[in-house]
Amino acid sequence: MNNKYKAVFHIDYTARIDLGLENIENLLADLGESNVEVELVANFEAITLLSKASNKYEAKIAKLTAKGVIFAACANAMRAHNLTKNDMLEVAIVVPSAVGELIKKQAHGWAYIRP
């Protein structure tokens, strides 16, 4: 039986990226990496968080990925920003819509966090 805590972080504005990543680091430190599943869903202008182009967050994303954090990119936001899967960091998974992903996670008991 999986008794892990589950949290999905929703980042839509670039101004929230630093806070969101810090929140994730704090959560992992508090609950322990093995006790929590974390997914970050990026959409709207924050889709750039997962873009390869001059990404100052790439090292931090790699570190969090190594700790089990999943990074999801909204396909709608990618289209709106003329981004393809090839433009995204390798660790990014593409979901059809951020809203749909967030609803699915919440329906399965995930806590919704919007920094």
**Helix share of residues?**
25-40%
* Averaged pLDDT: 96
CATH superfamily: DsrEFH-like
Shape, principal axes of CA atoms: globular
Widest β-sheet, arrangement of strands: 4-3-2-1-5
Domain count: the total is 1
CATH topology: Hypothetical Protein Ychn, Chain: A
Architecture (CATH level 2) name:
3-Layer(aba) Sandwich
Question: How many helix segments?
Answer: 4
Descriptive report:
Helix content is 35%, strand content 23%. It is α/β, with parallel strands linked by helices. Helix 2 links the parallel strand 2 and strand 3. It has a single domain (1-71, 102-115), classed as Hypothetical Protein Ychn, Chain: A. The protein has a five-stranded parallel sheet with strand order 4-3-2-1-5, sandwiched between helices. The chain is built from four helices and five strands.
